[in-house]
Fold:
Amino acid sequence: MKAPVLDVSHYRKEYRGKVAVRDLSLSVAPGEICGFIGHNGAGKTTLIRSVVGAQPPTSGEVRVCGTDVWREPVAAKRLMAYVPDNPDVYDFLTGIQYLDLIADVFGVGTEERWRRAGELAGRLELSDALGDPVSAYSHGMRQKLVLTGALLHDPALLVLDEPFVGLDPSASHELKAILRERADSGGAVFFSSHVLEVVEKLCDTVAVIRRGELVASGPTDEVRGSASLEDVFLELVDEKNDFVVARRTR
Amino acid sequence: MTSHSRGRALVPLLSLQARSLLYGLGFRGGRGRARLFGAAALVVLLAGMAVASMWLLGGSMVAVGAAGAIPALAALAGSLAAVALVFVKAPGTVFGCRDYDLVAALPVPVRTVVLARTAPLYGFGVALSALLSAPLYAAYFTSAPASPAAVATAAAVSVLAPLAPAAVATLVSLALTSVAVRFRHAGAVQLTLSALFVVAVVAGSLALGRASSGVDDAVALVVMGDVAGALSAAVTSAYPPAAWAAAAVREGSLAGLLAFAALSLALPVVVTLALAARYPHANAVATSGPRRRARPAATSRGAVTPLRALTVKELRRIGSMPFYALNSCAGLILMVVAAGAIALFGADALLTSGVVDGVQLDVQAVAAMRAQIDAALPWVFGFCGAMSLTAGPAVSLEARASWLMLTAPVGAGTVLGSKLLANLVLGGAAVAVSAVALLARGTAPLLVLQCVVAAVGMLTGFASVALAIDASRPNLSWTTPAEVVKRGLPMMVGALGGALASLGLGFLSVTAAGTLGPAASVAINLAAPAACAFAGLAALRAVARRGLPGPGWGE
Structure:
């Protein structure tokens, strides 16, 4: 079995004594797209922010390609990229200035950044807007810009929080293709989403979180069984169905 | 919709504005009481200072026999306060609002929405006008009969004075905003256009005043010995309706009062109705982005180091936010102006001219105090350096884009270092220009060196301290940049600490020059700023070692 790209072990997060996520463990292998689903406030963004190094865990470990995100943050961050749910970037930069900044920070060479930025911006239909200030971008264009920046350094792990929100149908289609290509080329993708149809079709594995606890995880086909992912999800997040949760948690 | 229901809709909308103000002051869900009390105390302090200043101005005018000009001046002061307030607050409050779609979708008449947005501005304008006018009138009535009618008229004029100028300023502000937003650096364009507009109005009204009388009224009346008349003429040429207000208060002119009241009440009504009629359009033009032009294909530049890339980003941020740049670089501007003045006129000439506040020296005294003056001069530059802290609020200014800083594969030292470096680049440029100016005047190189060390040392030290505080406890959820640029703890600690340290060390240096000799003051002037810089850098280094996000990042 290949070593996981993302390995979360006994993760726990408390906010002022209130437990947001308790004892959560999951892993994402190379070549795998993992969908992370849960109701609002379940703890998805909390875990994701700890994975990308934006928020320390109360306890537990987060490793990317074997590197501990909170002990060797710089080395771990070089291996991954993050697309947040709200793609707020610097309004005072133009699109190309933003991409240059990201490429410089991640140490991407001149030729490489030109090639990748050109290719990705072309696929996401952003090329014509790269000279415009970010302040003039719509939500969807910012999302595309952040996505382009995230892929500039060819990360081993791509972490996305609600990546399909605000994208037009063609960009959404292109994003799905990009995520699949990344997985096929050996990378790992971990993303949260409320769009269960996309998770069901796109993801190799799925993890379901309810009130800070992992209630199901594994290959998508196994988690959903013969039902649709939506049915399973509704069943899992229904607090009356604790016995179902106990049965599906591995 | 009935007027009753319209009134019922107005109350929650006004309440929303009040809550927005409280939120802006940091009062959130019962938290931030201390900050609110602090803001209230600051408002009381500033109000007290304004009242005292106006009282002193009024008293001085009475003393020189110009009491007759006070009513016109009071009307002008109230008007100018309202205009300044509207220019600052109307964009984002009346038009160009971020919550426009939300408010526009409410089942409330547009007039009510516009009224809810403009009424607070008029209200604050009236409060400001009353605050500035009351002490002036109090001084006026010490030399003029305070009949009930005159006092009541003065009170009415104080309330009415800001209304018409605020209404006109709203429209002018909308016009300037709609032009400015079409440029990429809208903030800088807005500031420039506003400054040009104020200059044009002042110059135009003075020219109009002269043209209408055929002679320079002020000069003519001063020649005739009528100081009050001269001042009144100058004021009313700048703002003609002030003459009606003055006539109403001074002479009990009913016609003057009616004309002033009619103008003051009619213009806000007309402007409110006009804005309501075109409100969607007004918001659209005030929020439209920069004009899209056919640009050459955007090209990436060559690779640079992360530190350099982040520093360039910080400099771009400073350049794109005139409010931030002006507030954070005021000391650097002052430093260059001071060095330029010394280069042009010489330090001795400036000290004997009386232009330096609180300094009353003659040529002999300046010559006798040469050692003390040389000991103090570097601390003028040290003070300016410590007042120039662009790095102070730089972490908080990341705000909702802070995820980029937190997920970048660089250490906290690089992130914080880039913010300090951007500050030093700007400071270094100002110090270099100042040093060249001083050397060009023939200032002794050792003294110039002390000035440079004091400026750079104090800037580095206090920018580092402010940045360390900001990195420890950033405010990433501000609603206006003023919350962190002007009212943030890091800026207050950095700037106040820098000012006090500069004054204290300057005093120490001057004392040492007098008691121990010039060598002691030179040693202090070189060693103290360096120590300050090292101490600040050590504090910043300690915070950087803890990493970002560190303790104190609100969760």
